[in-house]
Design goal:
- Helices cover 60% and strands 5% of the residues.
- By secondary structure, it is mainly alpha-helical.
- The model has no long low-confidence stretch (mean pLDDT 90).
- InterPro entries: DNA_S_DndE, DndE_sf.
- This is DNA sulfur modification protein DndE.
Length: 117
Amino acid sequence: MFTHVRTSKANKEVVSQLTRKLNLGAENVIARIALAYSLKTNKKLDLSDIQDSGGKEYSRKVLFGDYDKYYLALVAQHYQLHISNQDLGKYVKMHVDDGLDLIKDKNHFKDTLNLFT
């Protein structure tokens, strides 16, 4: 089971910018939103397309808090994987990056803001 998740280098600044713009407090909040937002699109990501890991690092505990089993179950269910599958952390990372990419896009950013109204 994985212990850390790192965003792509390109998304390191995106995490900080969105956290400030949305006044979210801790930067792990936008990562949780990004993960859920990406899963909401219902697309399956391909492990061969995984981005670099040069960005913001989150420990599993910081990223998910006390709800890690729920977040991991969402990803495992999405890919029909067992919760102990060795690739689960990679899928989490990919969906966090994908969600951040979607949210930073202006059209999706407006949709994200609607989550808070």
